[in-house]
Design goal:
By secondary structure, this protein is an alpha+beta fold. The protein contains four helices and six strands, in the order αααββββββα. Strands 1, 2, 3, 4, 5 and 6 form a six-stranded antiparallel beta sheet that branches. The protein is elongated, with a radius of gyration of 20 Å.
Length: about 160
Amino acid sequence: DTYGCHVKKLSYSIAAAGLEVLRRLREEKRLCFEPQDISEEYINAKRPEERNLWIDWKADDAAKISNLVRASNPYYLGARTRFEDQCIQIFSAELLSEKSTEPPGVIVSISNQGIDTACADSRLLRIRVLNCEQGVYPADEWARIFKILAKDRFL
């Protein structure tokens, strides 16, 4: 799930848990308290820096990139990469089991499912939704509009 989907699912769980707490308060007239973690590490947890949101196609395996994409959307507006002179933000991607002999970052194929791109571990990552200066696009539509071809490369 993306960060946004996870937060939405979590909100439903929190509401259900709240109702259960109220039910128990009414029935048992007591609560079981647990100490809260208020350590410095918890309170002052660091947010990722901009440099941590960038994909390193030569070093990052497909799973790492997929995790970065999920973790950085929507709060950080996607995982970053470059295509030619543009910053591209990847909002949605899918880890594939297929492998490729192409170098990392090379677009292996483009279909209505997305843009299949080689990663450092030779596995493919299917980019489904991305953002560029001109707006947010399904990956295949972006490729068609901007005349992106197989063998082109993300940097």
